[in-house]
Each structure stands twice: as C-alpha cells, then as structure tokens.
Amino acid sequence: MSVLPDPEPLYELIEALTQLPGVGKRTARRMAYYLLQNDREGALAIQKAIESALQDLQHCKMCNSFTQEEICATCLSPRRDNTILCVVETAADQNMIEASHSYHGLYYVLMGKLSPLEGMGADTLGFKRLLQRVFDYPVKEVILATNFTAEGETTAHYLGQVLKEHGIKVSRIARGVPSGSELEYVDAGTIAWALTERRSD
Ligand SMILES: [Zn+2]
C-alpha cells in the first residue's frame, strides 16, 4: 500500500485495473506503474485494443459468443453438427472446449450463471433466448457444460428442468472435472473425457 495519496488519474487507473479477475490492489498498482514508467506505447496499444473490441464486437445472434458479424463463423460452419448444443458460462469456457478438439456441435454461451445474490436471475441471463435458439433449430441434445461450482450446478439444474419440460434431451458433462472447479482451468484431456462421458437422466 502506498502511504502517499495517489494523484487522481493514478488512483482511477488502479481502480480500473482491479476490475480484472484475479487482480488485487497491489498487482493493479504494479501494473499501473509498469505501464506509466516502462511501456507507455504498450499502454496506448491496450487502450486502442479495448476501444476497438468494445466497438466492433457484438454477441452472435445464434450462440451469444463474441463476433464481428451477426452470426459467428462457428455457427455458420457446415462442418459442425447442428443437432447438438453445448451450453457454457463464458467464451473462455467455449474456447477451452474447442481446444480439446473433442466436440463438433454448436454452442450457447450464457455470459454468466444464475446467481441470485448478484442479481443474476433467469431473465438477466437471457434463458429465453437460449430456449428460442433450441426451438428455432433442430437441436436433439443439449449438453450442460456449466462449471462444477455451486452456481454452475444451480444453473445446470434449472436449465435442465426447463429444457426437459419442453421435451429436449439434456445431458451433463461428467464429473471428471473436479468439484468446485471452472472449466477454464481444466486440462484439455479432462474436458474431452467429461464430454464423452456425459450423462443424461
Ligand atoms: Zn455463434
């Protein structure tokens, strides 16, 4: 912690950096000093990249992931099996599953999870859009690949109930993914196994 009061712009920068996952005050301060002292060009490049990403990326109309087009390349690909839909919490999770090279269906990215305490309910998460997506296309199976955390499990349970009520076959990735863990941090082999061993009840 600094004993001197921070100049306002420095304080603002540190506060902004602490918004990033896993970045506490102390790391944020180190990053801020680094960018200002050693890498002003890098800082400007980050600024530009953030601006252009915010401006040019939108949510894919089909899978809700990030894309520059209305519909992303994955959803448009003729090589994907459009009868299977894998539901994940984040684009990072989607990326991990892709990296495992074990899945060739399509995705739906929730961009979150049910978390009543944080004001994330079914409406906020856009479950209706997911349902619409399932009904609009010939989906035969929905694989729930939300994380094995309490909130991820709640989300999977809720979604499973709703989808089954509508007569959709639902499966859950296998438990090989350690309890309490997030897909993002699981190795590709385990993800591949969890997908192959998925269960429907
Ligand atoms: Zn898409």
Q: Which terms would index this structure?
A:
Helicase, Ruva Protein, domain 3, 9 helices, alpha/beta, binds zinc ion, Dna Topoisomerase Vi A Subunit, Chain: A, domain 2
Provide a descriptive summary of the structure in words.
This protein is of the alpha/beta class and 201 residues long. It folds into two domains: 8-56, Helicase, Ruva Protein, domain 3 (Orthogonal Bundle), CATH 1.10.8; 59-196, Dna Topoisomerase Vi A Subunit, Chain: A, domain 2 (3-Layer(aba) Sandwich). It is built from nine helices and six strands, in the order H-H-H-E-E-H-E-H-E-H-H-E-H-E-H. The strands form two sheets. It has a four-stranded parallel sheet. The chain has a two-stranded antiparallel sheet with strand order 1-2. Strand 5 (141-144), helix 8 (150-165) and strand 6 (169-172) form a beta-alpha-beta unit. The longest helix is centred in the N-terminal third of the chain and has 17 residues, at 40-56. The radius of gyration is 20 Å and the shape is elongated. Residues 60, 62-63, 65, 71-72, 74-75 line the site of zinc ion.
Q: Average pLDDT, to the nearest integer?
A: 89
The biggest beta sheet is recorded as: 4 strands, parallel
Helical content (DSSP H or I, runs of 4+): 40-55%
CATH class categorisation of the largest domain:
Alpha Beta
